Amino acid sequence: VTNVVMRVDGFAMMPNFTFGTAMTTFTGQNIGAGKIDRIEEGTKKGLKLGLIVSAVLVAILLLFGEFLIARFTNTEEIIEMGGKMLRILAFGYLMFAVTQILSGVMRGAGRTVMPMIISIIATIIVRVPIAYIVEYFTRTDKAVLGSGSYYSIYISLLASWTVGGVLTLLYYIK
Q: Can you say how many angstroms the Cα of residue 30 is from the centroid of all Cα atoms in its chain?
């Protein structure tokens, strides 16, 4: 199931990565040209565009998630589970857009350490423990580690993207 979901997820993530890279280049070029005033306006427009694209992708995943999963498998159980997993992840793409775009601006301005620290916090301090906690509390066989919900991975991804987005936004505002 995870392989199929990650294939669809990969397509949903591409625009966010692209916007982040574009904002890095945009910011660096404007700093180099001495046009600092353009960066704030460009950031707002980049964020708006990224959130619109992510919102469209969220709508597509919510409405057609199972259909997209079915492009990779014929197994009904996998299609159903994959659709649920995509619905868990869907709104995280909005926060991931915020993270990528604002981190791109910071990287373009030469501030690379804080986006890295936020990424470490979101990935290691938030994602990993939440995955284990959800797995632990959803175990069907209390004696068997790993018998918890498959959704724990996706819930932890959503939580880490949300925390990463909030921390990035707060740091950017600061």
A: 27
